[in-house]
Amino acid sequence: MARSKSSGRWLMEHVNDPYVKQAQVDGYRSRASYKLLGINEKDKLIKSGMLVVDLGSAPGGWSQVASKLVAPNGRVIASDILPMDSLADVEFIQGDFTEESVFQQILDAIGEEPVDVVISDMAPNISGVASADQAASMYLVELALDMARSVLKKNGAFVAKVFQGEGYEEFIKDIRESFTSVVVRKPEASRARSREIFVVAKGFKS
Questions:
Q1: Any known ligand binding at 89?
Q2: Which of 53, 95, 116, 153 is the most buried (most CB within 10 A)?
Q3: 204 bridge partner residues
Q4: The whole model's pTM is what?
Q5: Does residue 170 form part of some domain?
Q6: How confident is residue 106, by pLDDT bands cut at 50, 70 and 90?
């Protein structure tokens, strides 16, 4: 089957993407790793010894970065509906974290240790219907925020991918109620034409 012009453009862009090439050199599973690296460079969210929960972790790009940043004594607990190949120093829980059984597995993995940072690079499966895709993306990030509010320690941090559009402004207002500092980042590794941005919230008011 012939590729569409748009998919052909995407393929060319992907093949020539410097972050795709760098990921292959550095051994990262996705170019998304550089988004978290860029955010962490600015905001100093993840440090050695911390406990990080990674929501929507597959294929593992953010978990790879987080596990290196928390080394040697920190931990990363990752979860996704999709399978994810194992990573050193990352405990992976497959399933929908909004389901009680999966949520309980995550809580069991956390144990008594306070969670320092919750990270989320989740995005819905794209249907091509803009309004439906936006609603689905906002639903996911709201679920991630609910999870963060459930597990973060006082003054903990939360970083999540958000798409600008319907519901975005309300989400920012909502997140400001729970954190003392909320900023929006557009890392260099995020493609300019993408509506994705990353909300970085610090100082959780437990």
A1: no
A2: 53
A3: 179
A4: 0.89
A5: yes
A6: very high
